[in-house]
Amino acid sequence: MPWLRPDDGCGLVAMTRHALVTGSTSGIGAATARALTAAGLRVLVTGRDTTRGDALAAELGTTFLPSDLTGSPDDLRTFAAAATDALDGHVDVLVHNAALCPPVDTPSLSDADLEATLAVNVRAPHVLTAALAPAMAERGEGAIVVVGSWMAHVGHPFVGLYSATKAAEIQLARSWAAEFGPRGVRVNTVSPGATRTPINAAEDEVVVAMTARTPAGRPGTPDEVAGAVTWLLSDAAGYLHGAEIAVDGGITGCARS
Asked: What residue intervals traverse the membrane (predicted)?
């Protein structure tokens, strides 16, 4: 896309374009909001935590729009319209980052957690893409990035539903690439590995142990994932459609003895 390109110093130069990053009040979402802002995009911060959202929006000089992605399809379409209004009538970049991951075994998963996880991880991306991608296609340019997960590719206890929803999102991204790509909208996925975020801070020892035998030998950081998202929006990635980039330290693709 011509509005976000590497400059001579291998940085990024951007005309002002507008990005909606779901779940951007902390972790990978907040890091992505910061990275895209640094690259010159205007980012709409969204999420459930008003305190964190207001603070990040003030830091970035932008707007915070509260969101609850567990709502009905009509609620999600209302949110998409509000986000479009907040971004002066056009969303050029959509980053599907928000996700729920109830860490329980299958028999213990509550009906409420089942419904909420399916709503946030699958229904919300589908409805928001349906609401926002057509306008991108009419303009002939735009980009959608799905934040997937390494867990979509392996069997892992206690996160079966999360893993399944992430696999669904990755497949949706491929289908959207085929559907909207010919009209100028690139759709790709960034799949993080075990990453240090506020949501798993209490489980840091588990994350460290999980990554100890990967080629990287350590957990990832939100900034590393955000860097990949930002690169996907540059001209350097202009030929990528329907791709999945594993920013996972080699946890899915490599084994160490």
From this structure: none
The contacts of residue 55 (CB under 8 Å, 6+ apart) are: none
Token look-up 């971004």 returns 87
**Across the strands, what pairs with 80?**
none
What gap in Å lies between CA 147 and CA 241, rounded to an integer?
Answer: 15
Active site residues: 149, 162, 166
The pTM (predicted TM-score) of the whole model is 0.93
**Residue-wise pLDDT tens digits, 138-196:** 999 999 999 999 999 999 899 999 999 999 999 999 999 999 999 999 999 999 999 98
Class of domain 18-247: alpha beta
- What are 75's two structure tokens? 């609620």
User: How far apart are the C-alpha atoms of 232 and 53, rounded to whole Å?
Assistant: 25
C-alpha angle 103-200-76 in degrees, rounded to nearest 5: 70
Write the pLDDT tens digit of every residue in 45-79. 999 999 999 999 999 999 999 999 999 999 999 99
Q: How many CB atoms lie within 10 A of CB 115?
A: 12
Please list, residue by residue across 190-200, b when 16 or more beta carbons sit within 10 angstroms of its beta carbon and e when fewer do: bbbbbbbbeeb
CB 133 within 8 A of CB 235: no
For 116-128, give one letter per residue: b (16+ CB within 10 A) or e: bbbbbbbbbbbbb
The span from the CA of 100 to the CA of 241, in Å, is 26
